Amino acid sequence: MPTAMQTAIRLQPIDSAPGYRRVAEALEEQILSGRLKPGDLLPTEGDLAAQLGVHRSTIREGIRALENAGLVRRAGAKRLQVTVPDRAEVVWSVTRAFGLGGITFPELWELMMALEPAIARLASGRVAPALAERLRANLTETEMQLYDDEALVALDVEFHRLLAEATRNRALALEEEPVGLMLHSATDGLYRRSPRARFRLLEAHRHILDAVLGSDAATAEGWMRRHIEDFRRGYIVAGMDFKGPIRFSQRIRPQR
């Protein structure tokens, strides 16, 4: 049975995080809550030190962490400005996490099956004229580069990225890019082992693009689903490592 002393004591966890991290978290909370907005200038180091009750050296370390995260940048010689993290760096950070985390082909394929058909459906009827031309150019280039495996993989990644952009949904477009980069890693060597896969890819892209530009959402979604399912079959037929982690490739980085 607990003693009176045991029931009376209620200790709070000790915050043992380094001072600079607490500074960074305090400022990050202000940014993410919207109290500090992109373009706003941070207070000076001296003001921040006084407000947070820490040394200026601790403030500098905390600010450096925010700079590395892309949340602030120097607007001049001294003042710091709140910024939106660079999209390409965010995408590359997620892609690295996928690669270093040992994401397997089945995991990537399941994500693609959930994501890509929805992108094809939403892109239908939403493609701006300039983006439609880029998609047509991608398909033409794919036909020309059909036997250049490296170019073909890059064009495949670009095709899916442009479709995601065509949805006019920034969240979807941002989500798709790391998937596309991992797709490049997963496809490395596929066309050498399964030469007919390149022809199936071209056929699928033609049907998907025709449906998207024709505002036929159901057909676009159906062909994309068939395309992703065929990718899995080709992977198995080619004798690729189906269950092991995808070998991470850094040959393609996100476009800025």
Give the SSE layout.
Blueprint: H1 4-8, H2 19-32, H3 45-52, H4 56-68, E1 72-74, E2 80-82, H5 87-100, H6 105-123, H7 129-144, H8 149-166, H9 170-187, H10 190-193, H11 197-213, H12 217-237
Helix pairs in contact: 2-4, 3-4, 5-9, 6-8, 6-9, 6-12, 7-8, 7-11, 8-9, 11-12
Strand and helix order: HHHHEEHHHHHHHH
Under the CATH scheme, which class of the largest domain? Mainly Alpha
Total domains: 2
Trace the largest sheet across and list its strands.
Answer: 1-2
Structure write-up:
The chain has 256 residues and is mainly α. It has 2 domains: 19-82, Orthogonal Bundle (Arc Repressor Mutant, subunit A), CATH 1.10.10; 87-237, GntR ligand-binding domain-like (Four Helix Bundle (Hemerythrin (Met), subunit A)). The protein is 65% helix and 2% strand. The chain contains 12 helices and 2 strands. It has helices spanning 4-8, 19-32, 45-52, 56-68, 87-100, 105-123, 129-144, 149-166, 170-187, 190-193, 197-213, 217-237, and strands at residues 72-74, 80-82. A two-stranded antiparallel ribbon has the order 1-2. β1 (72-74) and β2 (80-82) form a beta hairpin. α2 packs across α4 (56-68) and α11 runs antiparallel to α12 (217-237). The longest helix is centred in the C-terminal third of the chain and has 21 residues, at 217-237.
